[in-house]
Specification:
mainly alpha
Length: 179
């Protein structure tokens, strides 16, 4: 189990690093959006590429931070109901949700989105809008984001099982193993 907890820690570190890096894309999106608005209204010039870049940046933040959000325990939950139960029951519900809902959904989306990305990459698909961007960079975000979410789900599953086995104190926070 200690080996699995080390793997969990590695997954946590990867998602934490990616999440903190991708945070900066929010600033980039704000700058792009602001510059686009200023140029559009002051110079009466607009480009579909700038609008699509904003969409790409939003997609990157949303998809690449899903694992980070799960790591930080900031995802949407049913805490009003679940909060009334013990931490052990909460962990069992989390394990059930990860195994029967999150894994199947995330793996299915990864599986189905990969051919769409690959086709876009091979054909060098471009936006149908005049001056638009190439499409494959945004399409790779879907399988990549769901891969990161799936990996974080593996980490969370390991931590919850370790908690139930009495090997760690709290699965949703920094781990402190019992030595």
């Amino acid at each position: 189990m200690r080996f699995l907890l080390r793997i969990s820690g590695l997954i946590d570190a990867v998602n934490d690093g990616i999440g903190k890096l991708v945070y900066w894309l929010v600033l980039v999106a704000v700058i792009v959006s602001s510059a686009n608005a200023v140029i559009r209204y002051s110079l009466h010039y607009s480009s579909n590429a700038w609008l699509e870049l904003q969409w790409y940046l939003f997609s990157a933040v949303f998809l690449l931070c899903s694992g980070y959000t799960f790591l930080r325990n900031e995802h949407i939950r049913i805490d009003i109901v679940l909060g009334r139960f013990s931490r052990r029951v909460q962990c069992m519900v989390d394990i059930f949700g990860i195994l029967f809902f999150l894994f199947p959904m995330a793996i299915l989306i990864m599986w189905l989105s990969w051919p769409m990305f690959w086709d876009s990459f091979i054909t060098k698909e471009m936006s149908s809008d005049a001056g638009g961007l190439i499409r494959w960079p945004v399409k790779i975000l879907v399988p990549a984001g769901f891969f990161l979410l799936t990996m974080q789900a593996v980490s969370e599953l390991i931590k919850r099982i370790a908690f139930l086995a009495g090997l760690i104190d709290q699965p949703g926070e920094k781990m402190h193993s019992h030595s």
